[in-house]
Specification:
With 327 residues, the chain is an alpha/beta fold. It has nine helices and 17 strands. A nine-stranded mixed β-sheet has the order 7-6-5-4-3-2-13-14-15. Strands 11-10-1-17-12-16 form a six-stranded antiparallel β-sheet. A two-stranded antiparallel ribbon has the order 8-9. α6 packs parallel to α7. The two termini are 24 Å apart.
Length: 327
């Protein structure tokens, strides 16, 4: 399948890999901004500690409202994807995910994996999905790999290698180490967005290297168990009705993330709750605010939004949502 950036003018849709995935609402919820890392590419607000973690009962109460609209009202499956800061630092996190699991929800987290292995041996009982990210400024690779091996046989595990240009070779080496010393995990080698907005300055050679290493590793992943993903590869649909499956990060690398005037299913496949409790259809914040979790009255969306931006500024989460060109 043709993969050049020249095909972007013939692109008419970005779709989920399967119809089952397209029916999942991912609630991407930042519970607070306490973090033990201060990665240079993250906005200061994501790790300053200025917003303590939300109260567990407050989280559970709003979760019921989400279920009423999306699960009971629209027939959608719900996956709560908790982030921070570093969400595993929340003192009530294990009781929270235990309660959510008992309520019939799928639970995922985005983490730096820094907590002790014994913590993960408890948390893995209540998790469906873990996205664990390697950050070259802070991550101790040996511990990182130990944590992966502690959870991978219990939880669907995905590893992100965040490639910072100044530590380029170190990050590529980490990707190979993770692949060699673990199994039953998917691995993505990613470019980094500065302040979650624009990519750092990578050379064309570095961009190509990131994509080729990711493809090489993924061609020989050691996967034997059936997986039930809430997100997967994205299907690029072209005007001649051909398509190709790609990683969301490759869409950025190939500069295909320009969808102004397209219909985007944020608010339907994705819901964002920030550390203030404000609710948005997407991380980009360009299509309006729904309200706050403390509001007595809320009107959740029942359809997507038309993208107003020349380039998608919302990062990987917003890219992993169905989009269709309006003809």
């Amino acid at each position: 399948m043709e993969c050049s950036m020249a095909r972007s003018d013939k692109l008419v849709g970005i779709e989920q890999q399967t119809s089952e995935i397209s029916n999942i609402l991912v609630v991407d919820w930042s519970l607070g901004n306490t973090c033990n890392y201060t990665c240079s590419y993250c906005p200061a607000e994501t790790h300053s500690g200025s917003h303590p973690f939300m109260e567990m009962q407050q989280v559970l109460a709003f979760s019921k409202r989400i279920n009423q609209h999306y699960k009971e009202g629209m027939g959608r499956e719900i996956c709560f994807l908790y982030t921070g800061g570093e969400v595993t630092l929340f003192k009530d996190f294990i009781p929270l995910i235990k309660a959510q699991r008992e309520a019939g929800n799928r639970i995922g987290i985005s983490t730096n994996g820094s907590r002790p292995v014994r913590y993960w041996e408890q948390a893995r009982k209540y998790l469906d999905y873990v996205s664990i990210s390697y950050h070259s400024d802070h991550t101790r690779l040996k511990h990182f790999i130990r944590v992966i091996n502690a959870i991978k046989d219990h939880v669907q595990t995905h590893v992100n290698i965040m490639v910072k240009p100044e530590y380029f070779d170190k990050c590529i080496d980490a990707a190979y180490r993770v692949h060699e010393e673990t199994s039953e995990v998917t691995i993505d080698v990613q470019i980094v967005l500065e302040n979650f907005q624009r990519p750092f300055s990578y050379t064309d050679e570095q961009r190509q290297r990131i994509m080729s290493v990711s493809q090489e590793i993924n061609a020989k992943l050691k996967l034997t168990r059936e997986r039930k993903p809430f997100r997967g590869l994205m299907k690029l649909r072209y005007e001649d009705d051909t398509h190709e499956l790609v990683k969301a990060g490759d869409i950025i690398i190939r500069k295909l993330n320009s969808w102004k005037g397209w219909k985007c299913n944020v608010g339907i496949e994705e819901l964002v709750v920030n550390m203030h409790g404000d609710i948005f259809p997407s991380w980009c914040g360009k299509v309006g605010k729904i309200g706050n979790i403390r509001d007595a009255q809320l009107e959740f969306p029942s359809s997507g939004y038309v993208c107003p931006q020349d380039w998608c500024p919302g990062g990987i989460s917003d890219i992993m949502v169905t989009k269709r060109k309006i003809i």
